[in-house]
């Protein structure tokens, strides 16, 4: 079994969904976990969990990210999980949507990496895991223009960082889930008006005939956090969507 004993992990968007499941999995594996989110109310649900410290961090704000990392000290494992799903085609996405997708889904990762990487390089040891999606350069998904564009950029970011620092003790990989049961997915299914039809459409994209669970994605994040011979890869974990 994977142990992260003695490792310090920083998780963004850990308030709910995949980020929360991963923070819990990292702590269970022995890591000292800093679970961060912009929503402090969500973070309060960690009360009583051993090995987890919570902190409000807005990944859109460099000062907020830098202050958090200054407070934490050495970060061995960074999980960049924050992201937002826009719907719409190229003709429907506004410039504001594109800017926001790029800021939250891509530049957020640049902010956190810039904050933790110098320390990782000093220690010649560091793991960076970035949340992408199969809706990226892996596969084109209808009605997900801003999202797919930004998540493809996450894969490019991941490979670029991996290439620059592969000889310096840094590994950087991306996770590309299919559709995963999470609070924001519930919101999106409700927002479509007919919840049951929306849910059935999401499930229909999954050849396994079901949605993924956040804990199943956390297992891959845990693997990548403790692995030793993989870097620069984009790992699909999608119920068979991209077979
Ligand atoms: P979610 O969307 O339900 O939760 C997102 C969390 O991000 C919330 O707790 C929110 O408060 C936080 N957040 C929003 N803006 C923030 C900011 N500026 N700074 C810090 N935190 C902020 O969780 P999810 O659905 O598990 O998605 C997590 C990640 O996984 C996202 O990057 C998403 O794109 C990606 N992903 C999700 C799915 C899916 O089907 N759920 C599939 C593929 C990829």
TrEMBL record:
Q: Which terms are listed as keywords in the entry?
A: NAD, Oxidoreductase
- InterPro entries to which the protein is assigned, alphabetical: NAD(P)-bd_dom_sf (IPR036291), Sc_DH/Rdtase_CS (IPR020904), SDR_DHRS6-like (IPR051122), SDR_fam (IPR002347)
> What are the recorded GO MF terms, alphabetically?
oxidoreductase activity
Pfam families xrefs: adh_short_C2
Q: Which family does it belong to?
A: Belongs to the short-chain dehydrogenases/reductases (SDR) family.
What this protein is called in its record is: 2-keto-3-deoxy-L-fuconate dehydrogenase
Organism of this sequence: Hoeflea marina
